Amino acid sequence: MALWRSVGTGTLEGFSRVADLHASKLTVKLAKTLKPIPHHDTLTFGNTMSDHMLVADFEPRSGWSAPRIIPHGPLSIDVASSCVQYGTTVFEGMKAFIGPDGQPRLFRPDMNMARLARSAERMALPPFNTSQVLTLIKKLIEVDQRWIPAISGYSLYVRPTLLGTQMSLAVAASDHATLCVMLSPTGPYFRSAAKPISVIAVSETVRAWPGGTGGHKVALNYSPGFLPLRVAQKQGYQQILWLLGDDMKVTEAGAMNIFVVVRRDDGDFDLITPPLDGTILPGVTRDSILALGKAHTAGETTLPGLSRSTLLHTKEKTFTIPDLQRWYAEGKLVEAFGAGTAVIIASIGKIGYKGEDMVLPEHEGGLGPIAQAFRKRILDVQEGRESWNGWGVSFADL
């Protein structure tokens, strides 16, 4: 049993003792007919679902229901539910891989679970035991393990989603919720994965703002960007470089964290990404790049394809579109790339702003040497070819 404070009416109603989420109560109902596995060349991100999903419900008087694995299909949600009317939906993005031992693996899942809990708290949704959610995710993946592509660069995308299901039009927090975990086999996020993407810097609309929810994985962070993205694509760009404030601070690229590589006067490189100021999502890939960059420069590891003399000075630092223009004009902006779970790393080859383009150097294979070094090391850890700081977690260790 766990204590939970009900905020369903927008006021504190004291504490009640309710059931926590327990993987030991899991029930499994397998699909009578399994779907054929599509050829990996046909996979596009998020468009193919596996055979099963995991569901659990929260009700304020009794707490969490027994979780259940059932055939993948629609949920029954009233149109008056909080998630429909007020967007009380949070989610996570993870990936499962097959290691050399044939066992499924996850990449730094503790960070995903912690972020899911923070996002739920920010949206005043019911809490849950993150270790139990991770155990349930493991069990779901084991049921649908055949859906994990055994090809490097491909994976089984894991989408835990928490929906506020309070049936009321009252403008208040939802004290009912449904947790659902879906699985989707996927390959490269961008179909032309070997080619750099183009972005256009936009300040007329913003992805996030100080005091908002930009630092959390909330559904409503994403949908307001759909129309600006459509406009950008009509102008010939693939993604948006989101700017914020009168000084035109760079925040994110599309739904990705952004990194730039700037050559220093001493010949080293600054690896710069915006700081976590509440408008930036604390990405797992972002954190991994920063940690690996620091370890490489400290001599604790050598990133693939880079020499020991290639020093990367990692910086979480605010920079602006005028900074990018100045570095570009001086010939110091050598690489830019987006980072995230779905894409891992996507090279940025062109940055448009007010009718002018900054075109970055082209590299064989699309990625610059520094971006390529990070992508290869992260992928090697994810797929079990290398180990680093316990990041790649085999199911045998969960």
Automatic annotation (TrEMBL):
Q: What name does this protein carry?
A: Branched-chain-amino-acid aminotransferase
Family per UniProt?
Answer: Belongs to the class-IV pyridoxal-phosphate-dependent aminotransferase family.
Q: Which positions are tagged coiled coil?
A: none
Q: Name its co-factor(s).
A: pyridoxal 5'-phosphate
Report the GO terms under cellular component: mitochondrion
Catalyzes what? L-leucine + 2-oxoglutarate = 4-methyl-2-oxopentanoate + L-glutamate; L-isoleucine + 2-oxoglutarate = (S)-3-methyl-2-oxopentanoate + L-glutamate; L-valine + 2-oxoglutarate = 3-methyl-2-oxobutanoate + L-glutamate
A GO BP term, please? L-valine biosynthetic process
Q: Which organism is it from?
A: Collybiopsis confluens
Top-tier EC class: transferase
Q: Which residues carry this modification: N6-(pyridoxal phosphate)lysine?
A: 217
